[in-house]
Amino acid sequence: MSSKDKTNSSDVREDRVVTTVEGAPLNEPFATQRVGKHGPLLLQDASLIESLAHFNRERIPERNPHAHGSGAFGYFEVTDDITDVCGSGMFSKVGKRTRCLTRFSTVGGEKGSADTARDPRGFSTKFYTEEGNLDWVYNNTPIFFIRDPSKFPHFIHTQKRNPQTNLKDANMFWDFLTTPENQVCVHQMLILFSDRGTPASYRHMNGYSGHTYKWSNKKGDWHYVQVHLKTNQGIKNLTNEEAVKLAGENPDCCQQDLFESIAKGEAPSWTVYIQTMTEAQAAKQPFSVFDLTKVWPQDEFPLRRVGKLVLNENPLNYFAQVEQAAFAPSNTVPYQEASADPVLQSRLFAYADAHRYRLGPNFNQIPVNCPYASRFFNPAIRDGAMNVNGNFGSEPNYLAQSNKYTYLQRDRPIQQHQEIWNGPAVPYHWATSPGDVDFYQARNLYQKVLAKQPGQQRNLAHNIGVHVAGARPDIQERVLAMFARVDKKLAADIKKEIRLASAPKAKL
Ligand code: NDP
């Protein structure tokens, strides 16, 4: 009896005939080979064994930070000429489109955690350019908690579970961040605990490079650059209480919103802007341009429009195209370089390394990560687990400038007039800056920006208060002292909120 005969449908296609993993027809997918009717199973039932063994291996390690995410494909389109700033092919002419994949994520939670957690959101985009894959591995916040990469694993651990109780732990979180030398976090803490810390959906939030990059034009002139992607759907946030409620009622609300909007033909889009700064301007700033806890004031460094990012295509398969997507700031193209920001420099190593661990050394060969608009040719990068690209066939396994094996080397343009670094190689502690430098931008946000948005100063104090209420009293004191350096009223309001949140609740 053929497999066709076993279906009720008359229009079954040949390519839907079920097979073994080796491609032979699978006779009985729902039967097991046994001795007689009720006797033991037989080891010779290879399809059962394959099915059980493969099931045991379905899960791959989740990302450590950014485990939980959603993604979609789309395109970037140039709307404004910036060739005076950047010579990359993707910006070569107005109207040019480049296919891309964007993945949004939360940071601290596990893969099944709620979309509405109070957390920064990852906003990573892979551009499949003709000059190779370019990844913008950004967040929905223009700054970050730390500026020294030696603190990164410690900081992320404080967002994870207590090693003993296996619970999220407000003491760990606030203890680390209010330690005096870690209070550079204060600016990011204001954004995290404002309502922007709980975006209503991925479509309703901005993306920012956060880091300073170095872009150059074809003449070799370079600028420091920061990138902003502003949502065209408008900013929309949840209050703390709405976020908590949704975490119970529909924890996948942002995944659902993104997928369903695109499926309905309502493709979300972002307008892309850059800020540029010269080396001379950077030298005059009261902060270092390599300090990830600072923004560039927009009146001095106005936003310049570049293009738009449109997400109009849902993935066909989440695991293949989103879970296996490997974004890394080290994936860059000619004319876009990393700056000396030490957190960015450490990410240049850490992201690709995380993918080698999570997906294997040949993760670039997984279709979603292949530079399909360009090509990969380097037969000295070879072998390793899961090599599936033919391994460059009979090409020699080394590169050498000999007559026999000549390889074409195309110059990658080097930016001219590079910064010159010198100094002793010493352990350097980038501790709190002198005076008010690490606090005044947070104060600007509180006193100038949030003050103009009705209810936002109050929500900030409330959101901090209900969280800090779970921490020890001595840590609460440190929290109040830190926010008092931003604004005394903010600290007083947080104190009231802690008291309210700590008051005994009436029994239901
Ligand atoms: P501006 O008045 O020129 O810029 C204010 C910026 O604040 C806007 O660009 C807007 O960014 C952002 N903003 C508006 N509402 C909120 C909110 N609820 N939470 C966080 N950010 C918000 O002043 P400055 O450039 O001097 O910046 C003042 C403060 O604004 C900074 O200290 C920083 O905290 C924050 N900010 C600044 C950004 C910058 O690039 N300069 C970018 C984002 C925030 P957007 O339109 O991108 O939402």
From TrEMBL:
<keyword id="KW-0479">Metal-binding</keyword>
<feature type="active site">
    <location>
        <position position="139"/>
    </location>
</feature>
<dbReference type="InterPro" id="IPR010582">
    <property type="entry name" value="Catalase_immune_responsive"/>
</dbReference>
<feature type="active site">
    <location>
        <position position="66"/>
    </location>
</feature>
<keyword id="KW-0408">Iron</keyword>
<comment type="function">
    <text>Catalyzes the degradation of hydrogen peroxide (H(2)O(2)) generated by peroxisomal oxidases to water and oxygen, thereby protecting cells from the toxic effects of hydrogen peroxide.</text>
</comment>
<dbReference type="InterPro" id="IPR024708">
    <property type="entry name" value="Catalase_AS"/>
</dbReference>
<keyword id="KW-0376">Hydrogen peroxide</keyword>
<protein>
    <recommendedName>
        <fullName>Catalase</fullName>
        <ecNumber>1.11.1.6</ecNumber>
    </recommendedName>
</protein>
<dbReference type="GO" id="GO:0004096">
    <property type="term" value="F:catalase activity"/>
</dbReference>
<dbReference type="GO" id="GO:0020037">
    <property type="term" value="F:heme binding"/>
</dbReference>
<dbReference type="InterPro" id="IPR020835">
    <property type="entry name" value="Catalase_sf"/>
</dbReference>
<dbReference type="GO" id="GO:0005777">
    <property type="term" value="C:peroxisome"/>
</dbReference>
<feature type="binding site" description="axial binding residue">
    <location>
        <position position="351"/>
    </location>
    <ligand>
        <name>heme</name>
    </ligand>
</feature>
<keyword id="KW-0560">Oxidoreductase</keyword>
<comment type="similarity">
    <text>Belongs to the catalase family.</text>
</comment>
<dbReference type="GO" id="GO:0042542">
    <property type="term" value="P:response to hydrogen peroxide"/>
</dbReference>
<dbReference type="GO" id="GO:0005739">
    <property type="term" value="C:mitochondrion"/>
</dbReference>
<dbReference type="GO" id="GO:0046872">
    <property type="term" value="F:metal ion binding"/>
</dbReference>
<dbReference type="InterPro" id="IPR011614">
    <property type="entry name" value="Catalase_core"/>
</dbReference>
<dbReference type="InterPro" id="IPR018028">
    <property type="entry name" value="Catalase"/>
</dbReference>
<dbReference type="Pfam" id="PF00199">
    <property type="entry name" value="Catalase"/>
</dbReference>
<feature type="domain" description="Catalase core">
    <location>
        <begin position="19"/>
        <end position="407"/>
    </location>
</feature>
<dbReference type="Pfam" id="PF06628">
    <property type="entry name" value="Catalase-rel"/>
</dbReference>
<keyword id="KW-0349">Heme</keyword>
<dbReference type="InterPro" id="IPR024711">
    <property type="entry name" value="Catalase_clade1/3"/>
</dbReference>
<dbReference type="GO" id="GO:0042744">
    <property type="term" value="P:hydrogen peroxide catabolic process"/>
</dbReference>
<dbReference type="InterPro" id="IPR002226">
    <property type="entry name" value="Catalase_haem_BS"/>
</dbReference>
<keyword id="KW-0575">Peroxidase</keyword>
